[in-house]
Amino acid sequence: MIIFGDGSQIRDFIFIEDVVNANIFAAEKNITGNFNIASGENVSIKQLAEILLKVNSKQNKIQYEKPRSGDILHSLADISKIKKSGFKLKYCLEEGLKKTFEWFRV
Predict the structure, then answer these.
(1) CA-CA distance, 19 to 25, in Å (whole number)?
(2) Tell me, what DSSP letter sits at residue 67?
(3) Who is most buried in 17, 53, 93, 106, counting CB within 10 A?
(4) Number of structural domains, the chain?
(5) What CA–CA distances, in Å, run from 44 to 98, 101, 104?
């Protein structure tokens, strides 16, 4: 598994089923407007890689490469608006990744 840079870059990951659930929630509650759908949690690329190694037994090491030019160092969504509506995530990052790997194994 290759990480470009030192892995300290921050992202906001969400499992696709939570994105779908957010859209269904908004439709059922007749919520309109623009909302960020994300977890609202800082996860470094290194943390993500470590979770992937834990979930996927076929991967066994991380290889670090030079950072990519123009890479965004920190990206975190403001999810305050969707939280106020009452929407809650069903899955944490690790659970979502486990379900993803299970789906690909079938």
Answers:
(1) 10
(2) P
(3) 93
(4) 1
(5) 18, 20, 24
The sign one gets for the Cα dihedral 75, 56, 106, 25 is negative
CA angle, 74 then 24 then 45, to 5°? 20
Could you tell me the two tokens for 97? 């990744």
State the residue range of the domain holding 60.
Answer: 2-105
Q: Which of 4, 9, 6 is nearest to 68 (CA)?
A: 4
pLDDT in tens, 71-102: 999 999 999 999 999 999 999 999 999 999 88
Arithmetic mean of pLDDT, 13-26 = 96
The predicted structure's pLDDT at residue 56 = 83
The domain that contains 32 carries what CATH number?
Answer: 3.90.25.10
Tell me: pLDDT of 104 over 90.
Answer: no
Interior/surface letters 71-93, b for 16+ CB within 10 angstroms, e for the rest: eeeeeebebeebeeeebebebeb
Residue type at 36 in one-letter notation: N
Give the pLDDT of residue 57: 72
